[in-house]
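Hi support team,

I submitted a single chain yesterday and got back a structure, but I'm not sure I'm reading the token output correctly. Could someone confirm the output below corresponds to the sequence I sent? I've pasted both exactly as they appear in my results page.

Thanks,
R.
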Amino acid sequence: MIPLSPIDHIFTGAGSYPIEFVFAYDGHLDSDRLQATLDDVISHFAPISNRLVRTSDTAYGLKPSEDGLAFEVASSDRPLDLSANAYDFLSPADTVEGEPLTRIRLTDTPNGSVLGVSISHAVVDGFSYFYFLSSWARACHGKPFHPPSHERELLIPQPLTVDAVLDPAAVLAGSGAFWAEKRSAIDRNQLTWDTIAMSRERMNELLQEGQKSADVRLSHNDVITAHLWRKYVSEWTSADDGQAYISCPVDFRRRMKPFPPTYFGCAVSLATDSIDYSELIDAPLGALALKVRAAIAAVDPDRSKQALQTLEALRLQEGLSALEEIHVIHPRCGLLVTNLSRLPVTEIAFDAGPPSSFAILTPAERGAVILPANDGIEVRVCLPVAADA
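Hi R., thanks for writing in. Yes, this is the structure output for that exact sequence:
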């Protein structure tokens, strides 16, 4: 039995989105070969094939299960077109008891194969997701890969204490997460996406604009995140909401020492900040970028440990039901921006070579993901469901 860490626990239950991508290949993938190498890789990445089980009134764990991973082979007579029908190639995982935490669908089409992979966020974060897939691809070619670390105990605070009575303000201050209304079940049919292609020239223009009102050197990530904050949160926030929030997941594998860089699990803390709505629209890009930069820089080892302690105390104090009331994105007036611009997509190369295209389908409402593109980046934004939808 593998215990869940505090950050794992908040990605369980209703509305806990999995990490989902689909990868298209110009050639055809051999399903038998994929299955055989998958079985070998899973012996190293055991949580991939586990199921969620309740270990106490206040805790879940991961238990080995013969049906903890679902591998499905399908076919389609329609031409491969991820821009039109990407969800057809995906079988979504659901992080609840009794369901597989990993679902993989291989679809053969007239012009190539598509691999759709949905993995519970309680099992992986972005790094771990691609760590597993790239290791699987290497195994398919008979190449070695670095075995992962599964030391989830390192993230469970000791001793376990619940001295302070927590409220939403304390949870936000301590962890960067939001304790609000119960999360809704995910309805992918209601989700819509914006796609922004941003050339290197446009990225540099934003950097120059931001630098004019900043007295320290900014990064592309700072100004792009600030730009998205101002653009989107102002669209779904009003003066009645008061604050407009920005959140960014920060991987602490290399920030928290000693900590295994090959840790397989969810190893992120939330960098969260806000600004009064009335100031958001007219705020200089550089001022917003500085807030983003400062929030991310503040996620040091002490801050990460504080976040783990806060989430652990909340679970012990309120029980498992409270986990479905925790949001990593403000449920009305916030945006979460994940930078995956260095995504190792080319490493997901099975017997048909690297993917010819890919799409992220992670159903994180009000979540934006920065992805690599040929001449710059591509930003995918999962838009909130309309109130009358």
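A quick pointer for reading it: The chain has a mean pLDDT of 92. Let us know if anything else looks off.

Best,
Support desk
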